[in-house]
Design a protein that fits this description.
Length: about 250
């Protein structure tokens, strides 16, 4: 398999000189695509002489696709040998955490945004009519019983961002004009237009998911790698090494 085409990284920002970093976009329950992308990452990595090989997962592991439970199980496993791995929190992952934490109001929003598929992957019926008036409460109890403790610990340990050299990895993006230390959790998980349409220099190159597009997006201040895998069948990883970026896709 020939290596993916490379493009110059925008701006002056670079990953560490001794590292190759793979940033994986929103997986959304597609364990099958994650398996294939991991294989592609391993194949690609042999072409790099970097001392460190790092995979950063940009969040949204669950919902929409058919195997959210399988995605989490794979990420809890040993992973590709010889790689460091960093796991970020996505807005869809917060649906699960908020719901289990007692927020019944989020239940309907979560179901309409793919949560039913995530619940089904854990063997839980998401149909409100199955629970009469108190369906969020009953559904929460069923999910709490069905969700393996290691999976809950995985979600609770997810981080809001990760930095490698001059590259900042975050799920959704950053708010222009706000110092990095003062960026809000809400924006890092949910922001769209204010970030996507801005040319603001954040003092780093931002690599993100959250907003799907048919192909990866490169702008002067950001790289977007959410290619709508749950529906398109195309899960993407950005490959950052030296002063170049390339993309692996299923």
């Amino acid at each position: 398999m020939s290596p993916p085409p490379k493009e110059p990284l925008p701006g002056r920002y670079r990953p560490p000189a001794d590292a190759v970093v793979y940033a994986v976009g929103d997986i959304h329950g597609r364990a099958d695509l994650l398996d294939r992308l991991h294989e592609a990452i391993v194949r690609d990595s042999v072409q790099h002489r970097a001392k460190r090989r790092v995979i950063v997962y940009l969040g949204d592991y669950i919902d929409r696709g058919a195997d959210s439970a399988g995605v989490v199980a794979r990420l809890l496993g040993a992973g590709p040998p010889g790689f460091e791995r960093r796991f970020l929190l996505g807005n869809h992952d917060t649906f699960l955490l908020d719901f289990l934490g007692g927020d019944s109001a989020v239940a309907e929003t979560w179901m309409w945004n793919g949560g039913a598929a995530a619940l089904a992957s854990y063997g839980v019926s998401p149909a409100p009519e199955a629970y009469a008036r108190d369906w969020p409460k009953s559904l929460r109890a069923d999910l709490a019983r069905a969700l393996p403790p290691a999976h809950l610990a995985f979600f609770r340990a997810l981080r809001l961002n990760h930095r490698e050299g001059d590259i900042l990895f975050v799920h959704a993006g950053l708010r222009p004009g706000v110092p990095l230390a003062r960026q809000s959790r809400e924006d890092m998980l949910w922001i769209r237009h204010e970030f996507l349409e801005s040319e603001f220099d954040f003092g780093c190159l931002v690599v993100h998911g959250h907003t799907p597009s048919p192909e990866p997006v490169i702008r002067r201040n950001r790289i977007g790698v959410d290619t709508g895998a749950w529906k398109s069948g195309q899960l993407t990883a950005a490959v950052l090494a030296g002063d170049e970026v390339a993309f692996l896709q299923t």
